[in-house]
Amino acid sequence: MLGELVKMKLTGYHDVGFKERTGEEYTAVVNPETYTLNYEIQANQESAGGTSANQSTFNKIAPRKLEFEFLFDSTGALTPTGAAPPRSVGTSEGVWEQVEQLKKTSFDFIGETHQPPYVELAWGKLIFKCKTEKINITYKLFKPDGTPVRAIARVSFVEVINDELRSKKEKTASPDLTHLRTVQEGDTLPLMCHRIYGDSTLYREVARVNKLVNFRKLVAGQRLFFPPIDKQQTVNRKP
User: Domain named LysM: which ranges (predicted)?
Assistant: First the structure.
């Protein structure tokens, strides 16, 4: 037994917390054959001192991107046996109603919030909270009067994570992470420590790790290693 057929479903929301629904939903006529989840690491391109070459340093992990194709059909030929056909099957509207419902749920501007909706996409174990990046629709089959009765929408959604959750996941300013930074004009070691650790007093430990003879004389383009630091051990090490 393959189990009960579950259709992919999109639900529109007003807020990034996904608590207030817009009232719009879209259920796929036919589930996608495949979908693609894109993962990307974004890097900073920094010039190495004394050379023309650039060196990539980690910046952040970009939001995931989900891409797939929706098939719209109003001929009834693609409706599974025993399943209820889409409302537009057999009507003079063709696939327009299905396309418009997808757009209302995931794309169209909402006057109350002055932006397109947030979207929760659910299909089996895939729960993807996102915003629509783009929808490209190709109309493929037509009635004699030109009404489209079949179409394919190539859609792309970008994952949405609220600021609090993103901060917990990335911890980009955490002293538990290793950082490699290029000194910029005007940088001081205490200032760089404040940016990375949130504590400018850790400059002594960073100077020790990098074997800096004079931490007050940093040179633009110089590369410095900012290691994970246990603040308590650092306090105990101070004279």
Answer: 179-226
Q: Which two tokens stand for residue 31?
A: 């589930």
Q: How many CB atoms lie within 10 A of CB 73?
A: 23
| Joined tokens for residue 61 | 């992990």
Domains and CATH numbers, the chain: 9-166 (2.40.30.200), 173-237 (3.10.350.10)
Tell me which DSSP letter residue 62 carries.
P
Q: Which CA distances in Å does 88 have to 99, 133, 203?
A: 10, 26, 67
Are the C-beta atoms of residues 153 and 135 closer than 8 Å to each other?
Answer: yes
pLDDT in tens, 48-92: 555 566 667 777 788 899 999 999 999 888 755 444 455 554 456
Residue 125 in tokens: 């174990």
This model's pTM is above 0.85: no
- Greatest C-alpha distance within the chain: 89
What gap in Å lies between CA 187 and CA 239, rounded to an integer? 26
